[in-house]
Specification:
With about 400 residues, the protein is of the alpha/beta class. It is about 40% helix and about 10% strand. The strands form three sheets. The chain has a seven-stranded mixed beta sheet with strand order 1-9-8-5-4-2-3, sandwiched between helices.
Length: about 400
Amino acid sequence: MTIPFNKPFIAGKELYYIAQAVTYGNLSGDGYFTEQCSAFLRDTFDTADVLMTPSCTAALEMAAMLCGLTPGDEVIMPSYTFVSTANAFVRAGATPVFVDIRPDTLNLDETLIEDAITDRTRAIVPVHYAGVGCDMERIMSIASTHDLTVCEDAAQAVNARIGDRFLGTIGHLGCYSFHETKNYICGEGGALAINDPQLIERAHILRDKGTNRQTFLRGDIDKYTWVDIGSSYVPSELCCAFLWAQLERLDDISQQREQAYNRYLNALSDLEADNLLQLPHVPIECRSNSHMFYVLVATSETRTSLLQHLTQCGIHSVFHYTPLHSSPAGRRYGSAPQPLPVTDDISARLLRLPLYHDISADEQNRILQEVTSFLRSHSSNRLDSPHTASLQ
Ligand SMILES: *Cc1c(COP(=O)(O)O)cnc(C)c1O
């Protein structure tokens, strides 16, 4: 029996709400369920406005447009992230400037940001990797000193917090994903949190094909027309009906994942004590949403052979990301003014273990047993072996 890497979680009432949407007769965007989802996210996460989108990629594209970028403008972001973080800003004419990550949280290293700022810098895009918050206090203070817009890539961080603030609501803009690999899903979906009220009106226009249709629907004008650039960033009601079934169980879904996450964490602590792997770090002020569970092993060779071993045992684990600064498009469109040693090192040694809502204790035990016996079988798997000393 194989253990998949991810299983899309079904909360229960998805088909019921889709059927309801069908009977309401409004299948395009901005019907009852779209409004339910956006109002719920806006109120629960306590922000000025939330607009549902077809994906986080679409939300990032809207965020890039809202930054008012012109060609040659620079946007600071990690290289250790998914392609959409950079692509959205490249499409808007900007150059991604890649900055290294912290070795503990694997988030943008806030101490390196100021050195990367030039007179062309317009925005910072912190990515909350694995649902663990970046140092937003420091990042917001840098942004305010240099008059930069902050767009949080909170794709993985729905319902995660720093202190009592939800990730995605601290910068000027925040982007969420409801892709089936994330915690809350509707197949493909996303949302844009607009935390700076000055950006709300234009965001509605960009999302609705560059028209002032929303103002028209409110009755403020008597016909609507093309007023700005824009695209079709409105998701179908059917997707929002599906998502509504998931959002209704927001905390309960997090708790299930947290249980599975903690089971991994506790079971692998001995291996960490013996220097056979490094476990994820969550700063004390952060409350993660247990989006993913990863381990860092000694070398890329160890990772390759552990991955092969798990595959042979029917366990599907994965790694990511190819750092954007070393990818073909990243080299063409982006720049990395400084070397990125942490990014290069981490991306070669990180392995993600299966984690989904209803992963069973038996499944986790099987995975844990294989990881443990594999890492304990070779002394070269130790993080402090002479073989790996150069990495420390
Ligand atoms: C998943 C993800 C995205 C893209 O989300 P989509 O909804 O698939 O467009 C962007 N950034 C990060 C960090 C992600 O993990």
